[in-house]
Every structure is written in structure tokens, then in C-alpha cells.
Amino acid sequence: MTALLKPAIDHVVIHVGPELDAAAERYSRLGFQLTERGHHTMGSSNNLAIFGTDYLELLGYEPGRATDRAALWQMPNGLGGLVFKPTGEADFRDRLAAAGLPVSESREFSRPVALPDGSAPDARFRVTHLGPEVAFNGRVFFCHHFTPELVWRQEWQRHANGVTGIAEFGIVSNDPARAVAPYARLFGDEAVQELPGGRAILAAGGARVLVLRPEAAALHWG
């Protein structure tokens, strides 16, 4: 199949609900340098661990904001979001739909970013979500950064634990071939590799999205 774009992970999302403070403390103890708490115009809040070309997002809400994005907080806490880099064209969402992929309307939002000089410019984003029927029982979407210079800053990319990027994203499926099929349409057949017990989506920089049967997942991750 002809690829619509090359797979590249933008970030992964760990849902923490109302436990942002506890999650931030836990990940700091693990050796991650986290950004200051950010607050989206949609009502959610986050802390980030920024790497070379991707990042990890702790996503939740602060007291009094549980009703903002209420449907999102119905998801269980833990790893729940896989986010790819889109192409920058304004018609990106329409191209996905034309390829037969279930896709929602794109949305734009922002959050202020506290910088060392005391300023707080807005980081701006456009996200495009794939439908839940192909989202591995979580969320899969694309995030376009209008202001990448407010995310990938050198002073935030140094971590005591030595982490420099996302190596793997793991998904357990009873039918990996079926689960990965929409992504072959999206990224091309050459981006999907058959493995014992499952499939892998090969992303930029050597990262992999592994979709494994339960028994293979138990062997791989323990």
C-alpha cells in the first residue's frame, strides 16, 4: 500500500486523572526532568518529559476541573494515548478520511508555557483523532505543533536517568494482524513488520509500536 506519511511518534500519553501531583513526584523520582504544570484551554493539565524528538505527557486535571473533558477521564489511568506526527498541510484530516480511515474533525487549542525569562507565550496545537474502532482501546491521534520551539527546548531535554527518547509503545491484542491493518493503509506495508506473536509498526528513529498477542506480550514485557 502507498503510504500517506511516514510513522513518527510525537508523544505518548499517560492518564493520571486527579493524581497529577503524585504522578509528577513519582516520575521525578524515576529521574525524569518534568516541565512546569501546563493548563490547556480545553480544561486538562499536564507535565511533560521532553526528549530529542518526542516526549512523555502526564495528563490529568486539577481540583474543580473534573467536568472539563469529562469523557476523557472515564478512561482508566495508565498508558492511554499514542500520538504520531502529522504532515503540516491544512487538508491532512481530509486526506485520512479519503483513504478510508475513521477520523474526527481536527481541533485546535493552546496552553501557556512558563519560560525561564518569566514570559508565558502560548504553545498552540492542532490534533486529529482516529476513530475508537482502530485506536487499540485507547486514543490514537496526530498532533501538529504550531510552536515547536515552546516544547522542544534544550534545558528540558536533560534527564538524570539518561532517557533520550521513546523506544517502544506496547499494545496487547488477540488479533494483531487485524489491529494493525488500518496502520498499513496509513503508513504503508513497509512500515509494518511481522513478529513472532504479533506485529510491529516501525517508526522514525528506531522506535517501535508493538502489537502482541497476550502470551507474546507476557514473554516480551514479563
TrEMBL record:
Phylogenetic lineage: Bacteria, Pseudomonadati, Pseudomonadota, Alphaproteobacteria, Acetobacterales
Signal peptide start-end: none
Glyoxalase-like domain mapped to chain residues: 9-187
InterPro entries assigned to the protein according to its UniProt record, in alphabetical order: Glyas_Bleomycin-R_OHBP_Dase, Glyoxalase-like_dom
Protein name per UniProt: Glyoxalase-like domain-containing protein
Gene3D superfamilies, per the entry: 2,3-Dihydroxybiphenyl 1,2-Dioxygenase, domain 1
